[in-house]
Write a structure and sequence with these properties.
Layout: E1 5-11, H1 15-31, E2 34-40, H2 47-58, E3 66-70, H3 75-85, E4 88-92, E5 104-108, E6 121-124, E7 141-144, H4 156-167, E8 173-175, H5 184-191, E9 196-198, H6 207-214, E10 217-221, H7 225-234, E11 237-241, H8 251-261, H9 276-286
Parallel strand pairs: 1-2, 1-3, 3-4, 4-5, 5-6, 7-8, 7-10, 8-9, 10-11
């Protein structure tokens, strides 16, 4: 490898997946000079023409040293590109393909509760992300609301009642997400007209990351696992808004319970920030995954 690291992110176009890969890539670049390039797959095509087009487009980028991929649809392209150019392949989140096919996998630790961790796996507390805490003072109190999911149901009345009990303490902002039922924001405005409300349909990309980087306190609905980890990474004090659990034994719920037991999810205590992207980048360097 040369002095400048070239990192290629293979993306399926999903913001959550792409942000995980970019979070690691940017952390790697903070440790060593690097250029980060993103190749977004054309998900409208069938797999074979999609892979053929991806391989052709890679030729427009510098030869990659690392290929990063998040999301099952990105895995075949990442493996093919890495093999073609002799790059290291890194898969974020547990793949459906055999993990041994990748040089390294970075997976949430809740995927291996009670199971041995393979040699080529680094475990992380939740999914990696791009949030970085700002320096200096912190201010702002935010509620982040998700919605029904595979692991959680939805009880709007109970959720608003919980927010009412917390929001009596100072000024608060509320942000919803794409999974939030359309009835939530109108009902919340009717019950608590003093809150400042932000719809996900009206905010710009990066808005939430900016808020979380400097917020003092964040309460997140329990179903929104990615936002919980983003809030912790931002350095805020983080609390959980309970939602009905459909699958109490689900891996993500067991991961949240582990966070609670370790003292991460107490909005009334001192913050316990996470820096998992930087920690994983440091671990990569320690394993020899660096320029040399």
């Amino acid at each position: 490898m040369g002095d400048l690291l070239h990192i290629l992110v293979i993306s399926d176009g999903k913001a959550g997946h792409e942000n995980q890969s970019l979070g690691l890539a940017e952390a790697m670049a903070r440790r060593h000079p690097a250029e980060i390039h993103t190749l977004r797959l054309d998900m409208r095509r069938w797999m074979y023409p999609r892979l053929k087009a991806a391989i052709a487009r890679v030729g427009h980028f510098p030869c990659p040293d690392f290929v990063l991929a998040t999301g099952h649809a990105t895995h075949p392209a990442a493996l093919l590109v890495a093999r073609k150019y002799g790059a290291r392949s890194i898969c974020l989140m547990k793949p459906s393909l055999p993990m041994s096919w990748f040089d390294l996998c970075i997976c949430p630790e809740h995927d291996f509760i009670g199971k041995p961790v393979p040699r080529n796996v680094i475990t992380s507390k939740g999914a990696l992300n791009r949030v970085r805490p700002t320096e200096g003072g912190r201010s702002g109190k935010i509620f982040l609301i998700g919605g029904p999911s595979k692991t959680h149901g939805y009880d709007e009345a109970a959720l608003i009642a919980r927010i009412r009990g917390i929001a009596a303490d100072g000024e608060w902002q509320v942000a919803d997400s794409r999974r939030t039922p359309e009835t939530f924001l109108p009902a919340l405005k009717k019950e608590l007209p003093g809150l400042t409300v932000f719809s996900h349909q009206e905010t710009q990309p990066g808005w939430l990351a900016g808020k979380l980087a400097s917020a003092d306190t964040v309460w997140v609905s329990e179903d929104s696992v990615s936002m919980i980890y983003e809030a912790l990474t931002g350095g805020a004090r983080v609390g959980i808004l309970e939602m009905p659990r459909l699958r109490p034994d689900a891996r993500v719920i067991r991961g949240l319970e582990a966070l609670k037991a370790e003292g991460y999810l107490d909005a009334h205590d001192s913050p316990r920030p996470l820096a998992e992207a930087d920690r994983c980048a440091a671990t990569l360097a320690g394993l020899g995954f660096h320029v040399g």
